[in-house]
Write a structure and sequence with these properties.
Strand content: 15-25%
Strand order of the largest sheet: 1-2-3-4
Distance between the termini: 31 Å
Number of strands: 4
Number of helices: 2
Number of domains: 1
Order of helices and strands: EHHEEE
Length: about 130
């Protein structure tokens, strides 16, 4: 049997919504499809791997005067609404952490389609999706 995953890359408010801090033009046009794909994956036992940008102002990628190659304006700042996943692709992640002293650029989680009950304590964790519909 072929192993399939659904790789969800950075579907966060700051990238996906027109008023986000680092908006990807026309990203809103794919949100409904992302929701359908995410629901399909969870409904059919397909593992969802999701990444999320996670910055603090001190991160070397963040600049008030970005060069747009290695530095970018503040976006997906930890604890802000813009850092959150959009509801259509959000998982219920039980826990997440990073090694002490490390400022992660991006975190990832693996969302199990059925009742996962534990999460690891690294940048990858297992979760189960909670449906709101």
């Amino acid at each position: 049997m072929a192993r399939v995953i659904f790789w969800d890359v950075d579907t966060q408010y700051d990238f996906m919504k027109a008023d986000g801090k680092l908006y990807v033009p026309d990203a809103e046009h794919v949100i409904a499809n992302l929701g359908r794909l995410t629901d399909y994956a969870h409904g059919h036992g397909i593992r969802v791997i999701a990444s999320a940008d996670d910055h603090v102002m001190a991160h070397p990628e963040i600049s008030e005067h970005p060069d747009w190659q290695s530095t970018f304006p503040p976006h997906c700042l930890r604890g802000t609404p813009g850092q959150k996943k959009i509801p259509e692709t959000r998982c219920a992640i039980r826990s997440s952490s990073s090694p002490r002293g490390r400022i992660p650029r991006r975190s990832a989680s693996a969302c199990a389609p059925t009742g996962a009950t534990s999460c690891s304590t690294s940048t990858a964790s297992t979760c189960s999706r909670t449906r709101t519909s």
